[in-house]
Amino acid sequence: MDLPVVLEASSAAPLYRQLYEQLRQAILQGRLRSQQRLPSTRSLAQSLGVSRMTVTQSYDQLISEGYLETRPGAGTYVCQQLPETLLQSQSDLRLKPVEREFELSDYGQRVARSLTRVHESDCEISFRYGRPALDCFPTELWRQLLARACRSSPSLQTHSRASQC
């Protein structure tokens, strides 16, 4: 890998975190391209003079966040498509409530009324059991991610066609 990675042992940040941040920045800035193969954890650890666990932790974090993907027997690669939220600025990530008009069944209307009733006098925060903060849930983002997962999973597509959901 011809990417300059500089790890500072004297830094307050752990080595795996420093490596994670530098690899993440390289991906976002395009220095590591889509589908580019990264070195094995052993070879990168050896070239950086750190333990393999340091590199493994960095790779695992990048994999869990959608920057990297593993291919059994082939290695670790930069993901072909990064999640859009990684490419947006932090101000763009603020979620706004989605307002849609739809018709609820009688039961749905009763449930909606019970959820919107204020039982506490002037409390801003409800600590009642079983009452999630539905106004804070990113419904539109959830819908988009669920739709994308369903489109990309052949098993889910086959199942949904069979059940006509």
Mean pLDDT across all amino acids = 79
Strand pairing plus helix content: what structural class?
A: mainly alpha
Strand portion:
5-15%
| Overall strand count | 3
- Give the SSE string: HEHHEEHHHH
Distance between the termini: 47 Å
Query: Radius of gyration, Cα only, in angstroms?
Result: 23 Å
* Uncertain residue segments: none
This entry's quaternary arrangement is single chain
Total helices: the number is 7
The largest sheet, given as strand count, sense and whether it forms a barrel, is: 3 strands, antiparallel
Helix content: 40-55%
General form: elongated
Sheet with most strands: strand arrangement: 1-3-2
What does this structure look like?
The chain is mostly helical and 165 residues long. Helix content is 45%, strand content 6%. The protein contains seven helices and three strands; from the N terminus they run H-E-H-H-E-E-H-H-H-H. The protein has helices at 15-28, 41-48, 52-64, 84-87, 106-116, 139-152, 154-163; strands spanning 37-38, 68-71, 75-78. A three-stranded antiparallel beta sheet has the order 1-3-2, with helices on one face. A hairpin with a 3-residue loop joins strand 2 and strand 3. It is elongated and about 65 Å long. It starts with 14 loop residues before the first helix and ends with a helix. The mean pLDDT is 79.
